[in-house]
Amino acid sequence: MQRFIPPILLCAVAIVQIALAHTVALTPWKGGGFGMFSTLDHSGYRGVDVIVEGPDRSEQLTIPESLEVAAARAAACPTNGLLRRLAEGVVARERRYDRAVTRVRLTMWRAEFDPVTLHVSERTLRTFVYDVH
Amino acid sequence: MSTTFTSTPWFGDARRQPALAFDDCSLGITLRLTAITLLLRPMGPWFVLPIVLAAAALVLIFPRVLSTPAVWLGISVAIALRIADDWPLADNHIYLFAYWALAIALSLRTSDVSSALAFTSRWLIGLAFVFAVCWKAFLSPDFIDGRFVRVTLLTDPRFGEAAMLIGGLTPQQLDADREALTPLPEGAELINPPAVIEPPRLRVIATLSTWAILCLEACVAILMLLPPDTSISALRHAALLTFCGVTYAFAPVAGFGWLLLVMGIAQIGARQIWLRRVYVGAFLVVLFYSEVPWANLLLHVLR
User: Fold this and answer.
1) Could you tell me what percent of chain A has a pLDDT over 70?
2) What is the mean pLDDT of residues A32-38?
3) Domain that holds residue A33
4) A26 vs B189: CB contact, 8 Å cut-off?
5) Are residues A74 and A111 in the same domain?
6) Contact criterion met (CB < 8 Å) for B181 and A31
7) Which residues does B23 contact at the CB level (< 8 Å), separation at least 6?
8) Do B88 and A73 make contact, defined as CB atoms within 8 angstroms?
């Protein structure tokens, strides 16, 4: 009976991965569902735009090296938790540089390719607003 | 004559089982190559990496450790921690590695380690390929209509030479295509986007590749999940070896290829010495693929 445990675990994780891909936009390439090399919906064609707002500012940030992993996680699976962690990282970094922040706006996107012409366009997966208290 | 089998304790030595074919080369090679794979592709944060590396080294040095279920259970738990720590960024073969290490631990506690491991190996490979086929055939519309392979052929640097040599693109056309396929910043879209140049030969290659990948993966899935049979066994090994021989020449995940081959060795009978050698050779071929820029070297030779 024990020999069934690893295959059952594999099935359980893969089924959860499919559910997450369809509910919270987890990229099919990740999460243990074996969807790699099946779609262009992967890290190379997903991204996050960060806009920081303050009393006298509203500017777009390039993801700094220190936040690349957090941004990659949020892009791969844009859940509230991972987006909040990225936003908190942005706020902490801004404060380290003595820049005031009142709001962080994150926009998650993925590229889509036309089935005939392959023309590329961006589709917003979700936006997330983090208000700094 | 009857033999009484007892379960090996977690910290026991599975080689002490009566009638246990632990000296069976396939089993020994399977476990050692699993450890070598762990050493070839170190994984995880500071609280996982040393545990995995130390366990893999000890497994290779001491036969007693090699056959201790608790060691493999520890490796499985360590890999699971690595997946949780890095969620959701871990690649799929890391998950498969955790299942495989668990399968080894559980099999080492049984009276017939080889057959238990062969059984679990077939199911793990079969199910992994079932889900891979499901994603490609049903869940990802951009695979079955050929978009994935078309865009990958044009944009992935590993396929650039093939796109030019076989597909008939010039370097200038390839550069122009790559630029056209790069998303514009901040969601901008051109009113008149440049046309992507795809010679007919390239479209044919993309279509053939799409269906060949799908058919080969479906074959592996079906053959692994069919009940064990001598005639099917040969086809099963042929399909898995073909998949690894073709896929990992291009796919940058040698760890996945090594793991599949190790799991394939676990299904080899004690007397199939030649097949075992083929698998070990394939393991080395995947190593060659991952460490030698063979496509560039080949192109230089051809030029």
Assistant:
1) 100
2) 97
3) 1-37
4) no
5) yes
6) no
7) B15
8) yes
State whether A31 and A6 are in the same domain.
Answer: yes
Q: Do B135 and A35 touch (CB under 8 A)?
A: yes
Suggest the residue from A15, A118, A121 to mutate for an interface test with chain B (most B CBs closer than 10 A): A118
Each residue's pLDDT tens digit, B117-137? 999 999 999 999 999 999 999
Same domain, A54 and A65: yes
Residue B171 pLDDT more than 70? Answer: yes
Query: Would you tell me which residues 95-124 of chain B have a C-beta closer than 8 angstroms to some C-beta of chain A?
Result: 95-96, 99-100, 102-103, 106-107, 109-110, 116, 119-120, 123-124
B92/A3 touch (CB, cutoff 8 Å), yes or no = no
- Give this prediction's pTM: 0.92
pLDDT tens digit sequence for B175-226: 999 999 988 766 667 777 788 999 999 999 999 999 999 999 999 999 999 9
| Helix/strand/coil for A105 | strand
Residues of chain A found within 8 Å of residue B206, distances taken between Cβ atoms: none
Whether complex ipTM tops 0.90: yes
Residue A68 sits in the same domain as residue A119 = yes
Overall number of domains in chain A = 2
- Say yes or no: A57 and A8 in one domain: no
Which ranges in B145-229 belong to alpha helices (H)?
A: 147-155, 157-165, 171-180, 200-225
**Can you tell me the mean pLDDT for B48-74?**
95
A120-131 and A103-113 as β-strands: parallel, antiparallel, unpaired?
A: antiparallel
Closest chain A CA to residue B151? A118
| The two structure tokens encoding residue A116 | 């005939």
How far, in Å, CA of B128 to CA of A33, rounded? 8
pLDDT-based confidence at residue B4 (cuts at 50, 70, 90): very low
Dig out the tokens for B203 from the structure.
């479209």
Q: Whole-angstrom Cα distance, residue B163 to residue B167?
A: 5
